[in-house]
Amino acid sequence: MFWIFTGAEIAILSLAIIGCISGFVQIQKLSHSFRKPYDLDNLLSSVTIVGAYIYAIFSIIAAAINIDQLETKNIVVLIQNVLLLVQVSCQGMIVAEAGRRICATRNQQVAKPGRQIITFLLFANITLWILDTFMTHNWITQELQLQFYGLLAWGIISRISLPLLIFYRFHSCVVLVEIWKNTYRTKEAI
Asked: Can you tell me the distance from the alpha carbon of 119 to that of 173, in angstroms, rounded to the nearest whole number?
């Protein structure tokens, strides 16, 4: 179960990072908007991203300290959490940038640059939300962290960071739907 979960998460995180990078290129083709994102969305994104960072950083520490044993699990957990850290950072930047863009010209309304990337990131976040909700709390997926920190310390760390990580995924889905709907809206629909 560990290998299925980590393999799936590494694959999705890698594809989401590639999607974010290509999304930066596509989003630059859109015009700037003068509307500000909602303050509540900014607050929720800022607070919940901290949970993702806490979980990833503490997992990286647990895997990196034991990396000299050259166990495959240590390397996989290290890669998984480095990818999580990079993906959350890239996605936060692309969400912030896409929230300030709009299709203003006729060519932008026809081409809708970056819309497919936003759709892909939406489905990637839904999938990661499901994985995090049902699998990340399982002791099998956190065995390395439990061995390194102990039951009490890792229990506290995971009970603080995992709900924030799960809510980050859910909130990202909502924000990406709003971007998909508002950024690519045609003038006839306004």
From this structure: 10
Domain annotation covers residue 60: yes
Q: Are 80 and 11 in contact (CB under 8 A)?
A: no
Task: Return d(Cα 163, Cα 104) in angstroms, integer.
Answer: 38
List the chain pLDDT tens, one digit each, 190 residues.
888 889 999 999 999 999 999 999 999 888 888 777 677 888 898 899 999 999 999 999 999 987 777 678 889 999 999 999 999 999 999 998 888 888 888 888 888 898 999 999 999 999 999 998 888 777 778 888 998 999 999 999 999 999 999 999 999 999 999 999 888 876 554 4
Q: Does residue 33 lie in a domain region?
A: no
- 177 found inside a domain: yes
